[in-house]
Amino acid sequence: MCSLLRVNHAATTHPAHPHGHQPHTTATTSGDGAMDREQILHLYDWHPGICFRHPGKGAIPTTVIGVIHPRGEGQRDIRACTDCVIDLENATRERLARADEPYRPGQLGEATG
Ligand SMILES: [Zn+2]
């Protein structure tokens, strides 16, 4: 009797933390996945357009990642689809990591400097 009561009481003292459960994963800037795809895509404005790498896809959600100035044509936006933006962000991150410079996503369309 007495021992049963003590077992029950001991079992209720730590009810909320089952062994091995870790609610907080440390998502710091180490290795891959510093920001996930969705987070990066949210940094851009998306409008239907033609991706510079995937013209065959037709009008898809794109964002402006740069401007070119063809001779005699004024200027033209360079648009990239979600896949290409992630690609370019990854490339930028790797390039900056090699140069030991901080990486800030969401700046593909920004002028340098
Ligand atoms: Zn694309």
Summarize the structure.
The chain has 113 residues and is an alpha+beta fold.
Write up what this structure looks like:
The chain is α+β, with helices and mostly antiparallel strands and 113 residues long. The chain has a domain at 35-101. It has 3 helices and 3 strands. It has helices at 2-11, 37-41, 82-98, and strands spanning 47-50, 59-68, 76-81. It has a 3-stranded antiparallel β-sheet. Strand 2 and strand 3 form a beta hairpin. The protein starts with a helix and ends in a 15-residue tail after the last helix. Residues 25-30 have low confidence and may be disordered. Zinc ion binds next to strand 3 and helix 3.
Topology:
Elements: H1 2-11, H2 37-41, E1 47-50, E2 59-68, E3 76-81, H3 82-98
Antiparallel strand pairs: 1-2, 2-3
Bound molecules: zinc ion (ZN).
Name its key features.
single chain, 113 residues, alpha+beta, three-stranded antiparallel beta sheet, 3 strands, 28% helix, 18% strand, binds zinc ion
What is the string of SSEs from the N terminus onward?
HHEEEH
Mean pLDDT: 80
> Helix count, per DSSP?
3
Spans where pLDDT lies below 50 across 5 or more residues? 25-30
Distance, first to last CA = 77 Å
Bound molecules: zinc ion
Radius of gyration: 25 Å
**Backbone shape:** globular
Strand content: 15-25%
| Spatial arrangement of strands, main beta sheet | 1-2-3
Strand tally: 3
Biggest pleated-sheet summary: 3 strands, antiparallel
> Pairing-aware structural class of the strands and helices?
alpha+beta
Helix content: 25-40%
